[in-house]
Amino acid sequence: MKNILDEIKEGFVYFEGGMGTLLQEAGLKPGELPEEWNLSHPEVIQGIHKDYIKAGSRIIKTNTFGANALKYRGMHTGKKEIPGTHSLSEVIKGAFDNAGAAVRAFPEERVYISLDIGPLGHLLKPLGDLSFDEAYELFSEVVSEGVKNGADLILVETMTDIYEAKAAVLAAKESGLPVMLTCAFDESEKLMTGASPLIVTSVAEGLGADAVGVNCSLGPDQMTGIVRSFAEHASCPVVVSPNAGLPRTENGKTVYDVGPDDFAASMLEIAKAGARVLGGCCGTTPAHIKAMKDAIEREGLKPVPLSEKNETVITSFSKAVTFGKRPVLIGERINPTGKKRFKEALRAHDIDHILQVGLDEQDKGAEVLDVNVGLPEIDEPAMMEEAVYELQGVTDLPLQIDTTDREAMERALKIYNGKPMINSVNGKKEVMDMVFPLAKKYGGLIVALTIDEEGIPKTAEGRLEIAKKMYDEAAKYGIKKKDIIIDPLAMSISAEPDSAKVTLEALRLIRDELKGHTSLGVSNISFGLPERDLINSAFFVEAMHNGLSAAIMNPASEEMMKSWRAFNALNLYDENCMDYIEYAGAYKERMAGLLLQLPEWRQSL
To answer: Would you tell me which CATH number, out of the four given (3.20.20.20, 3.40.50.300, 3.10.20.90, 3.40.190.10), belongs to the domain 312-573?
Structure first.
């Protein structure tokens, strides 16, 4: 028998419209919890579901939008008095009883019941008072009740914070059911906490959501641009459920100004823009859904075909970095290797120093921060979790979680607010068996080192074979090639004179034969040599010409930054050379300042 995902692949599927506004019309009082009506007014809830099914809805949403243990008695009582008079289990069971009764009234139709999950009403730390673990447990309890009562799928909706959405989707995916995520954007096409459609898509698909999109907050006309952005970036189906326009108050009542016909006309354009699952939110009625369905069928419209978007993206909560365009700069300084002061900071639990190193790298031009806090004498999992948490409070740059410790990796991935980089995996089976399941669960971009049980191959072709092996093994876990960055390893030319040639050839082969993305710790090439920046910057330029996608480097290196900006200008990654011109002007001023200080230096000698 088909499931909902099969039906979505074949054509348009229609959700219900609004529930809360219809309950208000039926007598729901201000301050009264809508979910209570599952038990006190079941005939009203069933009637609304039936009207939507008659109108053409093939997915109905349980009346559980605000059902969680912060409002109803459940396993977790949250942080405030619980106003609901029933238990969480009772209101969710009532919701499914009502939805099931409505579905059974239409035996000739295949109608799916979606567990509806809305926000908790509390922001997550550091903005609010709920920890990520608390949010996850609250959502997990709702999911468990939904599974127990026979949900066909789970809709996580109206999310305004991608961090809370992550907690909800992680909990929902544990069910094994199809999971859809829709977020509420403002007119700037951002979530309240700053995420764009690209960020929402990257995080949702990384976590394994089966469909993604937008609902609530805006009318259909205001959502068209957001839908186009989702359709541009999403490989999964796009879901859209607008309000019936923007709300306004009339005679003391909230009214919406987009009627069924106008709604249908706008939704026709949204369907043409790439949405495939269509419904309504606040202010919409069965008449809106029927008009929309009729308009699409009258037009004979077919959905925009689904296609794999091979975008390699990492994000923070508000910033996305895409690989495959200009080379990405990853700051290397949050790392104790060869850094006496940083080691002292780790031993002394000097978080302020760690944060300052990251901020300095951001000021110097880093686009991603590598985070490595591994020292044998400290608690690395605890330190990694704290460092990632605190860094996200002071910088909006995406982070690269750099550890070989499984617990440290998982704790950081769990609380990470966005889609991170994971540094690293390699071709050893035991390492792949550790890292790939974590990457699949939490969604991340994996740095894959070309080393296996036999060591580091001496030839570029050998490293290419390990890259192929890692791609193949990752695919077994459902991890796509676009979410793997190959690191063909730069070894010091002072120890292995031909290592630069081998690495450069490996970069070229991975680019040309595998169409893959690459990363390197560039400064490794110069270990043991004097004036290392000279070697590093020259190697960096050659590596970029051979296809390097990202460099782990020191953004404070003037030589490296000059080479990067010149490369971007020469290769059309810097429009009208504007970035180079700005940098050159600042560089000239710095050099002039240094010249002015020369007399003082000479006197001090």
So the answer is: 3.20.20.20
